[in-house]
Amino acid sequence: MTMEKRILTARFGKIDPLSIDDYIANGGYKALAAAVKMEAGSIIDEIETSKLRGRGGAAFPTFIKLKALVGEKEKTRYIVCNADEGEPGNFKDRHLMEQDPHQMLEGMIISAYVTQAQKGYIYIRGEYDKSMAIVKKALAQAREKGYLGKNILDTGFDFDIEVRSGAGAYVCGEEFALIESLEGKAGRSRPKPPFPTNAGVFLKPTMLNNVETFANIPHILEMGGAEYAKIGTESSKGTKLVSISGNAANRGVFEVPFGVSLKDAIEKLGGGVADGRQLKMVQLSGASGPILPADKIDIPIDFDHDIGAGAIILMDERTDIVDVLVRHAEFFEHESCGKCTPCREGNLHLVRILRKVQAGSATASELKAAENLADAMINTSLCGLGQSAPVPLATALASFGDQIRDSLAQTETKENA
Amino acid sequence: MSVLQKILNQNPKTEDYLIETLLSLQEAKDEPYITEEEIADIAEHYGISPTRVSSVASFYTLLSLRPRGKHIVQVCRDVPCYLNGSENILEAIKKNLGCDKGETTDDGLFTLEETSCLGNCDGSPTMRIGEETYTNLDTKKVETILAKYREAK
Amino acid sequence: MVELKINNKPIKAEKGQTILEVARDNNIDIPTLCYYPDLDIHSECRVCVVEDDWGNLVTACSTEVRDGMEVKTNTPRVLESRRIVTELMLANHDTNCTMCEKNLHCELQRIASNLGIKENRFGSVWEKKEIDDHNPSVVRNPNRCVKCGRCIEVCKEVQGINVIDYMNRSHETSVEPTYGRYLSYEDCTFCGQCSSVCPVAAITEKDETDRVWEALHDEKKHVVVQVAPAVRVSLGEEMGQKPGSIVTEQMVAALKKLGFDRVFDTDFTADLTIIEEGHELIERVTEGGALPMMTSCCPGWISYVEQNYPDLIDNLSTCKSPQQMFGALAKTYYAEKEGIDPKDLFVVSMMPCTAKKFEASREEMSVTGEDPDVDVVLTTRELGRMIRQMGIDFDKLEKTPFDNPFGITTGAAAIFGATGGVMEAALRTVSEVVNKKPLEKLDFETVRGMDGIKEAEVELGGNKVKVAVAHTLSQARKVVEDVKAGKSEYAFIEVMACPGGCIGGGGQPYGTTNAIREERIRSTYQVDSTMKLRKSHENPVIDQLYKEYLEKPLGHKSHKLLHTHYTKRN
């Protein structure tokens, strides 16, 4: 008896992802057929009752976005699916697109019906060549069957979706950087408010959500929001696709109801640590998530406990926390868009100081500077990248502070000033 | 009609398709990078300044304004791959190609780059060459894969 | 109406106002860097963070006030964040302030000083970069750039040109022209708007005060200066007076104190330009010629046409600008009259404009073919520098009039500095010449003011003729696209590249906003209204000049000295 609850992943391995007929034969597009017979308000009520929260990491209540678009005076509207999946340790969206692409499409079409949006974009990262090919085919099939295009299911409502390509920038997973990229520009975020639901693509109202979030919508309509809300915890309803990687014995995507134990997931689904080694640390959500020591994993998998986008990265006894911090810092430094001061300049200094810690030549005051810098970046950065880049460092100092401080240089030098 | 003109005609003549145009152009060329002349032509097509085109081309990792080898070998360097021995793979590739990261082989066939997470952590260590992502790499697999590209030329 | 508190002080504000706007309305100081009035808000520098009642740090420039909001602008958290953000900028900056042209006038210095920063906990990551000093007008120094984006915003949104932009990503981000190039004649118009908004010294006008000092101190040289109409309503502000102060005669006194042998008024050749250009327009309309005719006194606009609309070059008036007409006359007519060898004559021009430096260096702007007609152009900012270097107490100067013969001018010339001024001046002359009767009303209000494109209709010889005025190159583009498409309904178009016209030029005092431009414009029309002569064709010295030297408008001598040609560039 598995601890998984396979709703979104139910069809994985059972259907040909390139066959829309398989999808339909296995319950696909039923929710859409039902939705177009409902009032938009009723659909929003179901989503609200379900308490669906975004699955890309930010966990924002989805019904609020639907409501916001409906309430806008501007009639030109967009539905955007964020398939940029650049957060290290995450690959669930790739699996969703490669193994059951129509779920996400159905969720987008239902959202478009509710909000009367005319155009949808699926922004897929440039490196996901296979996903792009499969999703493009799925779109063509959906058009052929009348689920996309003009007069969908004889309702008089027109909506079509286009695949757009990223070009290698993690920051384009951030909603406004993504929108800038859709507009053919560099991925530099915008100040919020206004939010995308008010002024998004070409400054028009835009509902922007993760692949997994859209994939949940048809299932919520089918089972009803109340039934969906029975799964999970008070704060986090439904299931979560988790991506287990790192030193795990079984690396892969698993679907669990919110609330199950992280420890159980690691042992039963991830198979524990490979090659009989010992677990030393686990990082949740991705590179911007907290790093937990092995004795702190007896927690539920939910948003209150920082599962975020769902990555679970296992690190065994061979891993040096500082090596990991340096690698993460180098990642953020490379991926920062460069627009705002704290992130553009701050990430470089975090790299420099952490490399010195790694080499054993950092002083206590340099480490203090990094701590203060981490605070400032979290508090003042323009977007989520700068705000969460210092998170691994901050959590590492909390849990492994002594170990890190032991590696500092014994004498203070003024060379850093 | 030139290669660039065909690509420009593939999408609507609005500047939001700039990134798709640049990616397609690179893909269609023997050497995957954008020249100054191409920047000027693309700018004129969309009615924007060449500086705007350069600004976009210089921002994204997959786009290059500098000449590169025919095949870009992107080796993932992020933590999930790192935990599974990506450093060994990188060393093996460096030895095989005879060049360092950021460099192009003498025969102009390969450019070696480190890349951020490729989203294939369940198959780490990984690398991407062109439109193919290769997973569960070991030094032997790497040799076989690179040899395939050498033969194909 | 929104009720909020800032630093515990209850305040009433309008819905939609930002925290920064409300703070400034209430004399509460919040430091800013990338924010600039009238430009779009990008919220990049993060200096203006304040703390709200939800415990968040938010940027004051971009956050709207809400009912019940409680903002604190100087909590320890806020100050620490501002300090770190500033230290980060300084760690990637050439901090050799004493050798910098913006020393004591730098916005970054002011922020650092107010925060009391004495040491930087972040090691310097600044790497020396190449300075772009390859054009006559502006200098780019990336060693000082704080990536505030103001220059990009102005070039892209106000001018619609986008010759500079952010390149690369992350820490490699830099502000550059395309493909690593220098600013060049091919794509930059040298309008200098970028240099007028830069908070530091990353883009500045090319300072040529040294060359002027050298000439002034050279006993062999006879150094004359001409001053643009826009400078007299701006120099006062540069010297600490309120915006729009009219300081014509103190300005002349200051120039005399600097050591100029003669102080002349560019307004004189502005009157001359109107005579030549007015007759050129009449000739094109009656005998045939490219229409609509477009003004040619703005070198930024000329570059724009040469680069982007080379097929419309024939539509441009062939008249030189007043600056260049002056230079040509100085080195021929004036030199001959005074018995000075042109090689010993050094002509300096005081302008609100950086593009004028480029204009003076153009190959065609030399009567002899060897030496330029105008030797050096200085901006209002450089003039201010010279006055301060001499220790002159500007406010206490005794009013002095311009020298003759190039000192008698009209109100029509005085309004050249405002957008619509050239058009209005031209209409005053053209309508009287064509209709052969005096105008009832001299003021053409429809071409005045800050609207991007303005129109007027005049009766010329029984025909209704439409004219247009545009300022900023993005507005000019709209008008010129119609000309290119062959559907322009205008006979005559005035274009000024800078917002507000020359009074908003790239070389004007720092801190220019639309509100300040309007003050300068108001003063410009005030100068006109108080002058005895208000139409260029009534200028007796101009009359004399034709009788004595030029013979007639568009005559052989005029063509040689006062007209020019243009080059396709791209």
Which characteristics define this entry?
heterotrimer, B: 153 residues, alpha+beta, Glutaredoxin, 46% helix, C: alpha/beta, Ubiquitin-like (UB roll), Alpha-Beta Plaits, Fe-only Hydrogenase (Larger Subunit), Chain L, domain 3, 3 domains, 4-stranded parallel β-sheet, 4-stranded mixed β-sheet
What does this structure look like?
The complex is a heterotrimer of chains A (417), B (153) and C (570). Chain A has helices at residues 20-25, 30-35, 40-50, 62-70, 92-99, 102-115, 129-144, 175-182, 211-223, 225-228, 262-269, 321-335, 341-359, 364-380, 384-388, 391-406, and strands at residues 78-83, 119-124, 160-165, 206-210, 239-246, 252-257, 279-285, 291-293, 311-316. Chain A contains 16 helices and 9 strands. In chain A, the strands form 2 sheets. Chain A has a 5-stranded mixed β-sheet. Chain A is α/β, with parallel strands linked by helices and 417 residues long. In chain A, helix 3 (40-50) runs antiparallel to helix 4 (62-70) and helix 12 (321-335) runs antiparallel to helix 16. Chain A folds into 3 domains: 20-228, Rossmann fold (3-Layer(aba) Sandwich), CATH 3.40.50.11540; 239-316, Ubiquitin-like (UB roll), CATH 3.10.20; 321-416, NADH-ubiquinone oxidoreductase 51kDa subunit, iron-sulphur binding domain (de novo design (two linked rop proteins)), CATH 1.20.1440.230. With 153 residues, chain B is an alpha+beta fold. Chain B folds into 2 domains: 3-59; 71-152, Glutaredoxin (3-Layer(aba) Sandwich). In chain B, strand 3 (127-129) and strand 4 (132-134) form a beta hairpin. Chain B is elongated and about 50 Å long. Chain C has 570 residues and is of the alpha/beta class. Chain C is built from 19 helices and 17 strands. At the A-B interface, strand 5, strand 9 and helix 12 of A face helix 2, helix 4 and helix 5 of B.
